[in-house]
Amino acid sequence: MKQDSLKDILEINALGEKSELILKGEITFKTSKYFDDFFKNNNELYNSKEIVLNLNSIQNYDSFLVLFVRNIKKISNENGISFNIICENQEIQNFLNIYEQKNISESTEKPSHSFFKSYVSNIGHFWLVVLNDLKLFIEYLGDLFLKLFSIIIKPFEVRWKDFPVHFTNSGVNALPIVLLILFLIGLISGYQGAIQLQQFGADIFIADLIGISITRELGPLMTAIIIAGRSGSAFTAEIGTMRVSEEIDSLKTMGFDITNFLVIPRVLAVTFAMPFLTILANVAGIIGGLVSGLAVLNITITGYLNQLQRVLGLDDIFSGLIKSMIFGFLVASVGCFRGLQVKGGAESVGKNTTISVVNGILLIILSDALLTFLFEILGL
Q1: CA–CA dist 290, 326 (Å, integer)
Q2: Strand boundaries in the chain, DSSP class E
Q3: What confidence tens digit (pLDDT) does each residue in 8-42 have?
Q4: In angstroms, rounded to a whole number, what is the distance separating the alpha carbons of residues 148 and 144?
Q5: Are 307 and 168 members of one domain?
Q6: Global pTM?
Q7: Both 44 and 87 in a single domain?
Q8: Are 100 and 154 in a shared domain?
Q9: Can you tell me the distance from the alpha carbon of 221 to that of 216, in angstroms, rounded to the nearest whole number?
Q10: What are the Cα distances from residue 43, in Å, to 40, 276, 343?
Q11: Is residue 82 classed as helix, strand or coil in its secondary structure?
Q12: What is the pLDDT of residues 297-314, one digit of tens each?
């Protein structure tokens, strides 16, 4: 049956102060255009004391029926009009009930708070999340240390064939970017220092400035930050994707220990790759400082190297290497930890990858501060 006007799908019966709306035929978005004038111009409806909506004559419908019912109900509530529905079709009634329940749950208003109360509440929620993550990370580190110590007794439980792969990816493949960054750091630091030293005629002390700052601090620190952004994030993304695709659940079902199978090879690979990267990064930084010194100051290569040999001790080099191993351990550990924290889908993988890099850099800075004071007490 063709429906070309509002009269074909809606019949209005006014019985005194009661208005009965009878919907007929097809009530879909296709026929929704006919209802525009009804809501704008039907003043009799607004003057009623009771509105009855009759749905018994509907033959075809879609979600527009829900919108129509909600609009009539809204008009009734705003004007203090009693509203009732007549529907003998249980299928239509169930359809409306489903949408009404969803609407109730979505429209439940949250209690309004003042700006100050919301601000304080957000701070409290933030610290609850931080403390919960800290608790989980400490539990994770405890399990990791136990598994590392158990390697002495049960070395074959670890997936050792992944170790060279991760060592290559995290160490060898990271070498070009590490060398470039540290060379530029040395170049910039040397140039800035050279300008100041030149004012006092202390040109040769550029070797002291570059040698100690690079080997004790900048070398291991910058290398660790690069690895955090490169390998730490990669570990989170890899393990997080395995969680999303339920590969980790499959490994657990087959009896594999996730820490031994996935975490330890990555953690050990980065931990042992960091000292080698740091040594080469130190060389690159020192060369960068030399280039700045030769360009700005009145020094020679021989003079620079001789001064470097006099001032730079083994304690400076080894303190940096110890730091680098600790940094590498923390970066790889937090990368794997965040990967195991992934829940849901791709959004969670991206979120935890970002958090992994931020946490890794934060742990690097905090541990560097602690180790600096500790080495000062120990005389290193």
Answers
A1: 29
A2: 10-15, 18-27, 50-61, 82-86
A3: 777 777 776 777 777 777 777 777 777 776 666 66
A4: 6
A5: yes
A6: 0.68
A7: yes
A8: no
A9: 9
A10: 8, 84, 54
A11: strand
A12: 888 889 889 988 888 888
